[in-house]
What we know:
Elements: E1 8-11, H1 19-31, E2 37-40, H2 53-56, E3 65-69, H3 72-84, E4 89-95, H4 103-110, E5 114-117, H5 120-123, E6 131-132, H6 147-156, E7 164-169, H7 178-188, E8 195-200, H8 208-220, E9 227-231, H9 235-244, E10 247-250, H10 260-266, E11 271-274, H11 279-282, E12 289-292, H12 297-308, H13 311-328, H14 331-346
Parallel strand pairs: 1-2, 1-3, 3-4, 4-5, 5-6, 7-8, 7-10, 8-9, 10-11, 11-12
Helix pairs in contact: 1-14, 6-9, 7-12
Amino acid sequence: MTTTPPLVIAPNLKRRLSGVTATVVRLIPIQAQMIAIAATGPGLPPELPHIPLRRAATLPRDGWRVWHARRNTEMALGLILRHVLRRRFRLLFTSAAQRRHTGFTRWLIRQQDALIATSPQAASYLERPATTILHGVDLDTFHPAPAPERAAIRAQMGFAPDDIVIGCFGRVRAQKGVDLLVNAALDLFPARPRARLILTGRITADNQGFADDLKQRIEAAGLSDRIRFLGEIPWEQVVRSYQALDLFAAPARWEGFGLTPLEAMACAVPVVASRVGAYETLIRDGETGSLVAREDQAALTAALARWLDDDAGRAAAGQAARAHVAARHSIRDEAAAITAVYRELLTR
């Protein structure tokens, strides 16, 4: 817990792990090196700079601070703090959504002092000027493993040295296009004995039937040993799983931003993804992977086949992917750009 009143408060009003929570957790330690910042809310790691929500609501009125919301509930609480409790907060909202916002959300957005969008597509839905700041990744955490370490990781996961391992990480649900990926694997794998697929992520109760149906189809095809659902795994294991991959797939039907392709590319893994979220901004088609039309089963299958059948091309694309992320998508650059918005708000 921080004792000095921070200049920036980053609320996290959701206890379960989510993409927004992950963003707060990975950014704040880096931003704390640039400006006095603290998170508030439940479900955050104890080592994160943090103040209780009660203290955030009673900070002294000795100067302006920034309230950086990423959800509707957090925007609404910021308004209560400023207009009901008379705290001196400049209100900032970051949006990743690529859809028309509801009337209530549009009203909340109009009350903000500044806006950040995580992609040009998200900015186009805000109906107000916004600073576009793409997400970045921690290149010290996400990196290719040295060859001996990578071989050991793959062996621990049950893969042979010449296996071609495809990964898809995130919640198992139709939104993520998991069924499209399984369909492609069922089509491609019988003629490609080296191919493997792992899927990580939580299966919620409302998606259990969806997952069970996929598993039954995989079993009926005799591919249960080559297409595996690993469930929700610890964070450290997620990073090691990226390092074990040869190819990453992100065939989502829709996506706010979508950070997993960047994490994979930082580990020198090429990516096949649908043209949703920020994927068109992140992936260089043909150079760091492939982009396919949303819900285009044939195009997804063909793109996966291309990379499965080209060992040398896949390795070259992985190296290009790592270089691309290092040059354009460092988390330190993201943190610095957001901090610049904070400083502008504080000096208004």
